Amino acid sequence: MGPAGVKSGELRVPTAIAVTSADTALPAQDERTVPAVVLEGLDRKPLEQALAELHTLTEQHGYLVVVCSQATPEPVVRRLHTLRSLLESDRIALFRPGLPPLGIAVLARQLRQLASCDLGPGVLASAGRLLTHYIHAGAVLGSVARLDRVPVGLKAHARSWVPGSQFAVLAHPDPQLVKVAPDVTLKGPEFSTWMLVAKGQLQSDWVAGLGTRWGVHGLRETPLPAESPVWWGTGRMVEFCGYLADLSVLYQLVTSVRQTSCHWCGLDVIGDRCVFCSATAPPAHEPAAPRALERGRQRTPA
Question: Is the pLDDT reported for residue 35 higher than 80?
Answer without folding.
Answer: yes
